[in-house]
Amino acid sequence: MTLTKKNQSIASYDNAPFFERAFQYAVQHNLIDQAKVDEIINDAAKGTIQIAEYFGASSHLRVNLEESKKSMVNLVSLYLEDTTNGDIARAAQLLKEKPFRSLSRGGSQMLKDLYLMPEDDHFGSPRFDSENEFLKKCLVNGITVSKYRQTFRDCEQFKKELNFALWLGKKIGTPTHTLNDLHASSDHVIRTSLLSLAYGAKKVGSNKTGFPDENGLFEIFTSIRKEWGFLGDVTCSKKFLEDIPDEFRQLALETLSSIKNEDIPKIVNQSMPIEAVFGDLKVRKYFFLFNPLNEVSQFDKMLAKEWFSLTGGVEDDALLLTLFLCILAGAQPKTELTINEAKKIVSTLREKGPLEKEVSKLIEKAPHDEIGQLQALWEDFIEEARPFLLDKSDEKLEQVMSYLMDHCNIHTIARKN
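The chain above was modelled as a monomer; its predicted structure follows.
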């Protein structure tokens, strides 16, 4: 045999399924006799038919049996390599000692155990594949021992984080179904819980109970910055750590360290508005409960100071469109116009052109939850109003004023408050 052919032969052997390599070793070292070989062949034949039927494939078609045989070899290979940690000699010994189908069932159980683990670190994540579909996907695509082990480790970490988040949720007072319904990230729940327990309890008052909503979380952030401003430091309570189960203690300490080293410096940085810091961190790292009693959150109000100063918090479409019309013409912002003021605005628009980007900039300053609805209101209005506003053939402004009177807050004379 030439060197090239010998290398190809070795490569072919190394790439063979682990079961085949273990089987060859067992035969070559006389660990199994002909009777055992026949037993393995018979077991494989029966198992192949069972696998085909399990996956709903006809056991009478050769192509289905070939796929099933491949699946069975993959199951046995997975179990043998994992159990022996890749030791061919030990795997060959197991082939001698155990029935072939029991080795196949061992691989199948490994995949079923993996299926029962969470796929990610979010509460309420659904399994899109059935167990049957999951097993078939693993066997058709092939799953190496290293990939199986890494996936299982990742899933174990997901499970640990979910269990710790669940424990913290119960301690603070958050029903599991709430976390499931909101598809909460366990990492964010853990971080928010530990921030609240370590930095929030004394700062926002002992009467604050339950998992924080957006206002509560923002209050913790502002209290941390205030304490830093007064003391030049931020106190951290760790007494609650005594109650944390040992299995979660290391995760708790790592998260607290991350909060201290990564988040606290940003929160106390006076050069950055607290609203901007909160807006960034609350999205990337934290979780809060929605409070239906808060029509507009305290955070949104602070972030939207200019919006509320211009609108007074009005929600009437006509008042808002009047304000947008003023911004469009670069006029003094108002939610009510006289006819003469409206005519002056139209004349300005025809002379200097509309400032549509300025209206969009104003809308972006509104509370986050309202921006989409306000943008839709404006776009619908301006698309229909633009021809009237810019039609210079309407010299007496009759058509445009008729349109604006129907859609905006325009009166003959200014109303007295």
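The two ends are 105 Å apart (CA to CA).
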